[in-house]
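Database export, one record per block. Field names are fixed; values are copied verbatim from the stored entry.
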Amino acid sequence: RSCPLNLNFIMKEMTHLRYFMPIVIQGNKMGLKSTFYVGPSNKYNCPHRHRQIVVDLANRHNIDIAPYQSAGACSGILFSSEKTGIELVKSNKKAKKVVATYQTDFIESHRLYEPFVDHILMPSKWIAEYYNLENKKNLYLGIPKYDTHIDAKSVRDKYGIKNGKNALVIWPKIRDEHASGIDMGNILHALKSQGFTILVKTRGKDPLKQDAKSILEKNGDHYFEDTSWHPHTTQELLSVSDIAINFGSTTIEECVMHNVPLINFDIKPAVRNGSKRPYRVTHEYLYNYNYCIQAEKDIRMSKLVASIQHLATADLQSEFRKSRVNHLYEPTNCSKLILERLL
């Protein structure tokens, strides 16, 4: 059979690398050449701000870098992420066009690109049905970012994280933290009382103030923004964590795929940026398993400590498997499945 020899990727945000790089690496194994069409997003994750990282990845994995606008004329397979570069995807008449969905952004974006692409990489058929997004263009082959193998010892060495118990705190958006009035100090105190080293992760656009960072470091804990784009920092930290603290973030998906139990504080507002969201908490079905304890924002310290102790010692592997089978998928080489299907 004849097959396209080029894999093309519209790259305007560094966060796209966690989905694109596993496909690039699998493509190399199959003799397929990859090109990144790099353009600015003017966001904290803009590839122009992190150009050296892009160049180093390109050199290491034999990726060509091309001007962003030229993606409109490329042939082969053209990958984009959600609605990023949508004008170039729409104008391209030569390539097979494939959208890689990102977390749960597809809820609002699916309808925007569906009319003029060939395939949409959805996490699972169950999720497409849940959000009323069933479509003949959907491919249900898993999520490429989980193809990346992460070695826990290498992560500890990289960030100077000592052996011992670690708790990953996915810090809430500043908006949600302030609106809810949640006491983050109590949560951190409960974790420290149980001997956990705290790994705080925030996004580059939601950084903690310097005094908060200093307190963490003084207590032997760690603070991260987006230190690594591939593998992504959150996945690296989950690989060395025994428990996670979440605040309605879609990181719940990563916890499930990495077998990390969590305590979740439901503080997401119904109205965001002036409008009411159809799904206040996305991936809400992933919380309904024993690996997750839902906590009130004013939970008593004794109850919080008991929850931490339970999740840190319980055998929850069967719960994680059940959740993945019901809603996501069991880990496999998604990138290989995707490329074989597209070819």
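Remark 1: The first strand starts at residue 6 and ends at 11.
Remark 2: The first helix runs from residue 17 to 29.
End of record.
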